[in-house]
Amino acid sequence: MIFVPIGLYFVSSWQCLGLLLFHSVLIKNKMAKTIFITGASSGIGKITALHFASKGWKVIATMRNPQNVTDLADKENITLLTLDVTKPAQIANAVEQAISRGGVDVLLNNAGYGALGPLEGTADEKITQIVHTNLLGVIQLSKAFIPHFREKQRGVIITVSSIGGLVTYPFFSLYHATKWAIEGWTESMAFELNRFGVQIKTVQPGPTQTDFGGRSLVVSAHPDYEESLGRFQEIFLSEDVMNNLDTAESVAEVIYEAATDGKNRLRYLVGAVANGDYEKRLQLGAEAFHETLDKSFFG
């Protein structure tokens, strides 16, 4: 056995190795970055939590009912917190807990609802639910983290928007209202935050393989719109479209790029549909693009 002098003491080679390993773990933990994710119980949020964890990040995965998500709780570097982004008290508590655990480097606003159907058939409480979750919750949570990022002179705020924040489709008016608002808010906030070394960005997925069409989708109906809504759904939700959805993993990869590329870049589109439709709108112009879509859906 070899003895190595450290200060006034002699330790064995095995003890020395142990000290080195312990020191390396401390350095690794100190250097590991942390991402705070909303809506992480399923879909893009859950897949993104796993993706960042696989890259060595610490992940604070938030959701309304963390007790129901046991598979994330089993991961060593994933911490679950309760958060409903429509409740200011829960926002304050979750942000305080996250900062007390060593701080946050990236905020990912992912929680949200879809909304399909005619506005005339949508209950007022559903309108409030969608706007509060998709827009106000994003703004209020981001506001709560800004002092933390500003004081550190670094940080990244990313919001999962949608191609629906750059173009529009029939019967998604409420969803588009929130996503277009997010795009405008983000673009303006970049002027404020970039001065402090803080980046703010959006990610725009196209149609994606998640449960978005299930519990995360608010559907409304009205008898006077049945025919036109049916024609739209036949095309928009056709088997061909459903068989060519982007994966949540592909969205997570782009989110990781946005979080780590160090660029003051505003938008990251994901997938063939998002890139194709946005490019077509830019080429045709807003009026011609709208007329083209109207003809394709309704003749």
Describe this structure as you would to a colleague.
Helix 2 packs across helix 9 (248-260). The protein has helices at 13-31, 43-54, 70-73, 88-100, 124-152, 173-193, 226-236, 239-242, 248-260, 271-284, 286-298; strands at 3-6, 9-12, 34-37, 58-63, 78-82, 106-109, 114-116, 155-160, 198-205, 217-219, 267-270. The termini are far apart. Helix 3 (70-73) links the parallel strand 4 and strand 5 (78-82). The chain has a seven-stranded parallel β-sheet with strand order 5-4-3-6-8-9-11, with helices on both faces. Strands 1-2 form a two-stranded antiparallel ribbon. A two-stranded parallel sheet has the order 7-10. The protein has 299 residues and is of the alpha/beta class.
Short summary:
By secondary structure, this protein is α/β, with parallel strands linked by helices. 51% of the residues lie in helices and 17% in strands.
Protein traits:
299 residues, alpha/beta, Rossmann fold, 2 domains
Unreliable segments of 5+ consecutive residues: 22-29
Q: Beta-strand level of the residues, as a percent range?
A: 15-25%
Total domain modules: 2
Category by helix and strand content:
alpha/beta
Question: Which radius of gyration do the C-alpha atoms yield?
Answer: 23 Å
Q: List the total number of helices.
A: 11
How many runs of DSSP E, i.e. beta strands? 11
Q: Mean pLDDT, rounded to whole units? A: 90
CATH architecture of the largest domain: 3-Layer(aba) Sandwich
Largest sheet: 7 strands, parallel
Helix content: 40-55%
Order of helices and strands: EEHEHEHEHEEHEHEEHHHEHH
Strand order of the largest sheet: 5-4-3-6-8-9-11
The end-to-end span amounts to 85 Å
